[in-house]
Recover the amino acids of this structure.
C-alpha cells in the first residue's frame, strides 16, 4: 500500500509519514514522542523475547512513546514505563491504532 500523505522534514525534504499507514508493521524505533501503537511481535531469540514478554511486551499491548532516542522510554498498558536501547527497539514490531 503506497502512501500519498507526506510531511516536510526539518531539512525540507518530503518524507513518508508512516503514522497514516495502518496496515503495515513498523519498528518501535520509528515512534515519536506521544505516539500510540499496539505490540505486534518481537523478532529476537526465545530468551530475549520471553524477557520482553515478562515486562509486558505481548501481542496487542498498547504502547506509548514517552521519550524517543536510545535509550527510549515507553509506557505499556498498565502504566509501567520501561527504557529500551536501540537494539531492542529494532526487534519490536508495532502496528498503529485505528483512528
Amino acid at each position: 500500500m503506497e502512501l500519498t500523505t507526506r510531511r516536510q522534514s526539518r531539512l525540507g525534504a518530503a518524507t513518508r509519514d508512516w503514522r497514516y499507514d495502518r496496515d503495515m508493521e513498523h519498528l518501535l524505533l520509528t515512534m515519536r514522542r506521544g505516539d500510540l501503537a499496539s505490540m505486534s511481535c518481537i523478532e529476537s531469540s526465545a530468551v530475549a523475547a520471553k524477557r520482553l514478554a515478562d515486562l509486558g511486551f505481548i501481542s496487542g499491548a498498547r504502547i506509548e512513546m514517552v521519550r524517543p532516542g536510545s535509550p527510549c522510554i515507553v509506557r505499556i498498558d498498565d502504566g509501567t514505563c520501561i527504557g529500551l536501547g536501540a537494539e531492542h527497539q529494532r526487534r519490536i514490531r508495532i502496528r498503529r491504532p485505528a483512528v
The domain at 25-95 is CATH 2.30.30.90 (SH3 type barrels.). The chain has one domain: 25-95.
